[in-house]
Amino acid sequence: MSSTTAADHAARRARVQAQAQAQQQPQDSTHQPSRRRRIAVWSALVVALLVLASIGLAVQSTLTKPDTGVLDPQGVGASGAQALARVLEAQGTEIVVVRDRAAAERALAERDATLVLADTSYLSDESVLEVVGSASAAVLLQVPSRLPELLVSGASAAGYHRGDALSPRCDAQGVGGAGAITPGRMIELSTEALRDGAEGCYPDAGAFGLVQATSVVGTPVTLIDAVSLFSNAHIVDESNAALALGLLGTADTLVWFVPELAGADVGAESLTLGELTPGWVSPAIVLLLCAGLAAAVWRGRRFGPLVAERLPVTVRASETTEGRARLYARSRDAVHAADQLRIGTLERCARMLGLGPSAAAPDISDAMAARIGADSGVVRGILIEQLPSSDAQLVALSDQLRDLETAVRSATRPERIQP
Predict the structure, then answer these.
(1) 203 and 372 in contact (C-beta within 8 Å)?
(2) Same-domain pairing of 200 and 122
(3) Higher-scoring residue by pLDDT: 183, 66
(4) Residues 241 and 281 placed together within one structural domain of the fold
(5) Which of 65, 79, 190, 224 could be bridged to 154 by S-S, CB 3.0 to 4.6 A?
(6) Are residues 223 and 91 in the same domain?
(7) Among 84-88, 149-153, 304-308, 330-334, which stretch is predicted with the lowest mean pLDDT?
(8) Is 384 within 8 Å of 273 (Cβ atoms)?
(9) What is the 3-state secondary structure (H, E, C) of the chain?
(10) Contact 400, 382 (CB under 8 A)
(11) Is residue 310 part of a domain?
(12) How far apart are CA 419 and CA 417, in angstroms?
């Protein structure tokens, strides 16, 4: 009996195992096709999304025009001047856009044209004098500190106008029909310059927002800080458009010179920091240092060494950056924001050039200029000297810093830019 029962149990277990295997085989065969179908469906969806994203990027790149430099006649951004250029062309003025000095001199030699120069950061003093001297007349739309004294005897750059709009109060050519504007950098004229025929418009506190005079190379020049006047963002404000058309619309042909970093002067004479700054800067720095030292002695307190303490919360770096950016924008502190951009550019370029963390900003600037073959004075002006006074000038400075960093990266790591 026992042997028969054991045999029955063994036979029953064998039948159960056979039935289970028979049921499992069709289930596995049905699961495999369904799994393959799901993988195929998801793969098709991913491919479709990638194709749609590629089409969208292609359409956006064709519809969006890239922004260009400050007061570029082909620039469509806030700091460009395409709006003014189109109005001038509609009135019959021919505009020849050039982007290097040789092309500008050829264009001026071939025709009786007025030179329009918006940015001289990439040009040395000798280049500015040569290109201005080859024109029958010149209108300079940006007034860095070195330019008035370079071009007009007895002229010098003053501070920026901070008040309300000013009236012309002059009979200069192209200005008489314009109304009030809010100028940027002001220009001072000495008594000798006024006696020699220089004329100033938009006066305020002994300085002028626009100056017309005969340059040291014999070319009639007009100096005006029009970065925030003739740009696309501000051309319709106040009497900016009337002044722009009065200054530029009387010429039959305009040679609009937009210098670029790639065409920066090489081998130009390097200027020291003292030569680039006005004469009152050094005494002012000494006075501020003395005042700071006196304040430190007067108000100083010594409570022992500082103790590091953990904050009760963790603040993300992105929130701190955005908060500081809002504070800079609210206080209109363009200089402080520009300093932060310059610090970042100097740190990254120092690492690319293999300089140590103790390298000073002038040393980094000189090393960058030597590596990309540019004028050290021009590079130092971008990294140290220029002081933006408006959002438009801050954007222009950020574009120059980006171009400069790209040039250093291209010179140090050419393999990173290969397509």
Answers:
(1) no
(2) yes
(3) 183
(4) no
(5) 190
(6) yes
(7) 304-308
(8) yes
(9) CHHHHHHHHHHHHHHHHHHHHHHHHHHHHHHHHHHHHHHHHHHHHHHHHHHHHHHHHHHHHHHCCCCCCCCCCCCCCCCCCHHHHHHHHHCCCEEEEECCHHHHHHHHHHCCCEEEECCCCCCCHHHHHHHHHCCCEEEECCCCCCHHHHHCCCEEEEEECCCCCECCCCCCCCCCCCCCECCCEEEEECHHHHHCCCEEEEEECCEEEEEEEECCCCCEEEEECCCCCCCCCCCCCCCHHHHHHHHHCCCCEEEEECCCHHHCCCCCCCCCHHHHCCCCHHHHHHHHHHHHHHHHHHHCCCCCCCCCCCCCCCCCHHHHHHHHHHHHHHHCCHHHHHHHHHHHHHHHHHHHHCCCCCCCHHHHHHHHHHHHCCCHHHHHHHHHHCCCCCHHHHHHHHHHHHHHHHHHHHHHCHHHHCC
(10) yes
(11) no
(12) 6
- Of the chain, the end-to-end C-alpha distance in Å amounts to 87
Residue-level pLDDT at 287: 92
Is 166 in the same domain as 49?
no
Residue at 138 is within a domain: yes
Q: Do residues 282 and 372 both lie within one domain?
A: yes
Q: Are residue 237 and residue 324 in the same domain, yes or no?
A: no
Residues 335 and 365 in one domain: yes
Same-domain pairing of 91 and 188 = yes
Please tell me the predicted confidence (pLDDT) of residue 148.
Answer: 93
pLDDT surpassing 80 at residue 32: no
The DSSP bridge partners found for residue 166 are 181
- Amino acid 266 reads V
User: Residues 240-257: pLDDT tens digits?
Assistant: 999 999 999 888 899 999
Q: State what percent of residues in the chain have pLDDT above 90.
A: 26
pLDDT above 90 for 224:
yes
Structure tokens at 29: 């065969």
User: Please, which residues have CB within 8 angstroms of residue 366's CB and are 6 or more apart in sequence?
Assistant: 376, 379, 380
Mean pLDDT of 210-237: 92
For residue 20, what are the domain limits? 1-64
> Of the ranges 132-146, 292-306, 366-380, which one carries the lowest mean pLDDT score?
292-306
Question: How many structural domains compose the chain?
Answer: 3
